[in-house]
Specification:
It is a single chain. Strands 1-4-3-2-7-8-11-9-10 form a nine-stranded mixed beta sheet, with helices on both faces. The longest helix is centred in the last third of the chain and has 27 residues, at 275-301. Helix 5 (90-95) links the parallel strand 5 (83-85) and strand 6. By secondary structure, the chain is an alpha/beta fold. The chain has 13 helices and eleven strands. Bound molecules: pseudouridine-5'-monophosphate and manganese (II) ion. The site of manganese (II) ion has 4 residues, from loops.
Amino acid sequence: MNIKLSKKVSDALKEGKAVVALESTIISHGMPYPKNVECALKVEEAIESEGAVAATIGIIDGVAIVGMTKEEIEEFGIRKGIVKCSRRDLPIVFAKKMWGATTVAATMYVAKEAGIEFFVTGGIGGAHKKANETFDISADLEELGNTDVSVICAGPKAILDLGLTMEILETKGVPVLGYNTDYLPAFFTNTSPYKIDYNFKDPLEAAEIIKAKRENNLKGGVLITNPVDDEHSIEESKINKIIDEAIHEMEEKGIKGKEETPFLLSKIVELTGGESLETNIALILSNANLGAKIAIEYAKICK
Ligand code: PSU
Ligand code: MN
């Protein structure tokens, strides 16, 4: 096995304590330095201050570390050449002893192997616009269909086709829950026209739904969406214009495949004059608080 748990994480799991996994693509490919490292450390603090244990996941010299140290997180924020690692990249990165920043899909896989039920991130990947022609559909959706991990996020990024993304989640049997909302949050914006499957009002309710999914062998993930607060939500028409501009530039430059999401995220930061980055950080912190609370309720009802 190319997976290693920190002592803190492995002790917490043995004792049935709440543990929350975190990804590293967001650190290496999702945000500029030094905000990426600041944000990653703040997210860990937020989880721990709720009383859960944070486990940031990344691959170092071919070993997936579950529960990275502060120094390792810092290194993921600075080091050049860390591979953006989705499920298909894992065997290569393991065998070649490379460094890999895990995406939602790869982090879910590692979390499941480690025995962690909860995973907090910013936004998941999904069906890209024009996916009906390009087939560019994030492996995150496939992983949500197959892997028993609950993912807390602020919705799929609005750089995606949200309607198509919801259709695929339905096909794969992934329940989409919303925290005090009937509509799917769209990452930078806290709402969209798409209805989610259930509006839950408190962390215990979400924990009970996850427990019911596990007890009834309904394989796969649960997607828990948490809308960003009004203060940080960027107006839909404004962000959509910027997204269109970013996509246009991406197409002109011929950027494709796994480079698309990192390019779009950094272009949007540039075009919003840094506003989208502040929103991104605010939403992850809020997801961390919510995720930790759900994990704690879950640990209580599963005792
Ligand atoms: N959400 C963010 N920032 C990110 C990502 C999501 O706020 O950097 C990353 C996640 O790791 C996600 C990945 O799994 O983007 C999706 O990439 P792709 O579309 O290439 O599958
Ligand atoms: Mn893709």
